[in-house]
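Q: Got a minute? One more chain.
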Amino acid sequence: MSLWMPSKLPLISPARYGTSIRCTESVWKRIGTCPESDWVAVVSCGRNNTMTSTRIRLALLLQDLEFGGTQRYAINLLKHLDRTRFDPELWVLRGGDDMVPLAEATGTKIVRFTEGPYPGPTAVYRLLLHLVSSRPQILYTLTVVPNIWGRIFGTLTRVPVVIASLRNRVAGQYDRWLWRLCDRMVVNAESLRDLLAKDFAVDRNRIDVIPNGVDTDYFTPDLPQRSTHPSLIYVGRLVEQKDPLTLLKAFRLVVDDLPQARLVMVGNGDLRPAIDEFVRSHSLGSRVQVLNGTKDIRRYLQKSWAFVLPSVFEGSPNVVIEAMACGLPIVSTRVDGVPELVRDYETGFMVEPQNAEALAEAMIKVLSDDEKCRAMGSRAREKAAAEFSIETMARMTEQVFLDAAKRARIG
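A: Always. Here it is, folded:
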């Protein structure tokens, strides 16, 4: 694996806030199959921002590479980024290898700060040191902990451009106080721009809305693979935010009306034991299949009739667009950025969160009329292809980078 992590922590001598930090020594070792002698020494050298090439040095900072929509977004961006303009690296705070193969396939250098399960003090400390020794010209922070410490340390180490992000409304990344430490904020839904401006007093002129994009040539319908049983699919983390237990409660009601219905749940998370117990105790084992998360969800989407998302809150979920591109109608809760993706009664149905009865009613509607189900799925596919291409997402993000670089006189 082309992962890099520090093998020895250097000593640093921080000056007061706002000045540079000098790193006395940092030794980095490549892990994998290479010999111990394959070590690279990296030494910080002050505030110099001289470009070593015509390309802009860009670092994407993520918390982990476990299965998740933000991780998939980052990988899609790296895959389609214009390498004649940008020289990107992917920095990761902690362990989690679910999506490492996809990240490596982009040809991007991956820097990992710890292998542990939490982005704790060691990871944060090593991030600071790496910013000192290998300061990028643009730092783009994604997920919660990177958005906190990336902004603080990016300012402290005088990274020329810091771009932060918000991808759901309950991120807990202190945007009210930290937004001034970044040049731009990128969100994936208009509802999140409104939230930042109204609730956190973020300057609206600093916020860019870039909808998620998917590869609609890869995520396509495959009718021969479609299940003969009316089937639903959920793909996502098995955590309270996604509310999978309400989905199971609703599916129990669906089975009362449609005994032939099936549900596939794909994902990992701390609610897995509770989900397994619910399935067992309510004798749903023959109708509900719970699978571990996977880097390739297309085959599960193509087998299904409709996609279900029972979340309590969301940003603009990537997986909904992927399901739409596969020709699936969407049954979802009406939260945050979802109404920007789903047209109620045209490409799917939306209900209020944490309402099992309403969710069950919507699922029964979509499964009980196959002709209507297919028509809604076809319209969903058309909307995904027209409005959420991965190329559009990449070009819009690049433009944010280029505009910020111009203002900072980079390049």
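A: Residues 223-387 form a domain with the Rossmann fold fold (CATH 3.40.50.2000).
Q: Perfect, thanks.
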